[in-house]
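Q: Here's a chain of 338 amino acids. Please give me its 3D structure as tokens.
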Amino acid sequence: MRPWPVRGVCTWSLIIILFMGSCKDTRVPNLHRESKFLMGTLVTVSVAGSTAPAEACHEVLHEIARLEDLTSFHKPSPLNDINDAAGDAPVSVAPELVRIIEHSVTLAKQTNGAFDPTIGAISRLWNFSGPGEPRVPSREKIEQALSAVGWQYVQLDETTNTVFLPRKGMALDLGGMVKACALDRARKILKGRRIESALVDIGGDILALGEKTQGKKWRIGVKDPLRPSSVRGVIELSDQCILTSGDYERFLVENGRRYHHILDPKTGYPAEGVRSVTLVIRDPLITAPAGVFVMGVTRGLTFLEQLPGVYGWLIDEQDAVHQTQNARGLLKDLVMNR
């Protein structure tokens, strides 16, 4: 039976509740909004109350495009130059890329490998986000690819700005954290322009800068993983980011079985037990929600409780909501289970 692939631009994990419509919004003074397809999704930058909002939107989109060109896993890029040389020789790249890869390795160590940037060997097999249709690999191919997965093998030299993947077939895939890097860059650009009110949405990973209007925070709706057109709860944000991983974003069905795109680096198959992870966080680089997703409910909550200033919600495969202690009451009109 031919698999049924499901993916696309509108597979967002979050819905912007009160920030939709045309580029002019009478509820927000001097609002300007620009969108562009980047990083495999729709990126929207909205700036309010600035004397030069169009220029700010353009600069943020340009920076996100530049970051995509540097780190792309699906088209020629310096990252893929490293991947192509796996097992052969170190590759000299820009210091910026070395730092990004170093941070991804730090996240892998932090999550004990639940997030692993060397998942690329497995990602290529499933092809959830590459050109063409996704597919279910054979067990033999998965087992072979797993031998090329291991964040601890990545060799970085900051003196020479080189990266070396010592095993043939190894591949870095930074898709699990590059959007967070983009939000961090966007915040620096906007603050550098002294902009106090803005929203940056990268396919559901969102930076809410300042307040929407004076005294009113940005209102974001968390999508229901079982009913993606519905909202499970609403949260108000100011100077925070919201990051998410959901099994409904990209998936395929083959022979009656559903496979999603969040892969467990230890098994090579889609992670089980969780349907979505939502994190509210000031620094988007603190951790990766995909790693929490792979950990599962019990380990994921224990891990999040150790991170100061991180608020987390996990929805399991039985559709029940689990949340960190500090998150209780923050998600308004929250439906705990169906």
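Q: Can you summarize the key feature?
A: The chain has eight helices and 17 strands.
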